Amino acid sequence: MGSTSNANGELNIDGHTIQVTSLDKVLYPEKDITKQSYLQYLIEVHKRMLPFLQNRHLTVKRYPHGMYDDFFYQKNCPDYAPDFIQTDVHEKINYIVCNDLASLIWLGNQLALEFHIPFNTIDSTSPTEIVFDLDPPSRDHFPLAIKATLEIKKILDRLEMDGFVKTSGNKGLQIYIPLQIGAFSYEDTRMFTKFIAEYLVNQFPDDFTIERMKENRGSKCYIDFLQHAEGKTIIAPYSTRGVEEALVATPLFWNEVNEQLRPELFSMNDVLDRIKKKSCPLKEMESVRKQQPFRRVLEGLLKQ
Question: Please, how many CA atoms are within 13 Å of residue 35, restricted to the half-sphere of its CB?
Fold first, then answer.
């Protein structure tokens, strides 16, 4: 696709023909990123991104005129979607299930710049991972997200649990704790996330909060444990965000979580360079699921 020069084109992906349009449309003016560049990004990153979208009800955030204009969230698959788009009906919503590159590129051509996914797959009501969303009030307070992340890492190490980290693609960080498939309920995970969040607030009351109302949080980092629940979603790893720098929700290695870390280091173009040099920091998530001692941790909480 990289050499396409006209405003429209046609892609054949795995036997599916996709009409791509307005390839010269500028989506991120500050970075001079066009629609063609964005679709090329999705092609380059799809092998890392698709496993996280696999068999999940997808919510996309679409920016028909680029990130500086209006946007809307889309849950229902539109009537004009091609036949190869897989869907699944849940609670009267006909969700798109993005399991392949053709579907990903079709969505990209619809200017879906953000991909949001739930914590369970389409065939289960059990979460496949716990996720902490660490949300400071602004980029200026990003060091608080770093501090919260490292404090949670200390707790996970003591519990002998494996965690993984990524940027949110905006101003925060997110920690993933993979779980054995189908083994735990959202009630189970809520007990754990609430305990950790309250512990952090008790230990560092000047830095962290679990206050839901933004106007009451002040300059503290919000430890969002309520977002991890059935029906809630989180930004998918490797998804771009609708922010002016074209930032990406980027998986990190733990040694990268330090005082030099900044969200602005992970624009779309930066991530393209990164994936050529580094493996995916989340690649071990599947292999550690079964060995997580989460049941032992739960039993310990129930005894308190």
Answer: 25
Which parts of the chain sit beneath pLDDT 70? 1-7
Dihedral of the alpha carbons of 144, 132, 268, 5, in degrees to the nearest 10: -150
| Beta-strand pair 164-167/173-178 | antiparallel
Predicted pLDDT of residue 4 = 38
Own/partner long-range contacts of 275-283 (Cβ < 8 Å, ≥24 apart)? 275/44, 275/45, 275/48, 278/253, 280/48, 280/251, 281/164, 281/165, 281/166, 281/251, 281/252, 281/253, 282/52, 282/164, 282/166, 282/176, 282/237, 282/251
User: Which of 244-259 are b and which e, b meaning 16 or more Cβ less than 10 Å from the residue's Cβ?
Assistant: ebbbbbbbbeeeebee
State the pLDDT at residue 279: 97
Structure token digits, residue 221? 């980092």
Amino acid in position 50: L
Q: What's this model's pTM, rounded to 2 decimal places?
A: 0.95
Check: CB of residue 238 under 8 Å from CB of residue 20. no
Strand 208-209 versus strand 86-90 pairing type: unpaired
| CA-based R_g, the chain, Å | 20
Helix intervals (H) in the chain: 35-53, 101-109, 142-159, 186-203, 268-277, 285-288, 294-302
Q: Count CB atoms within 10 A of the CB of residue 284.
A: 13
Among 103, 128, 108, which residue's Cα sits nearest to residue 117? 128
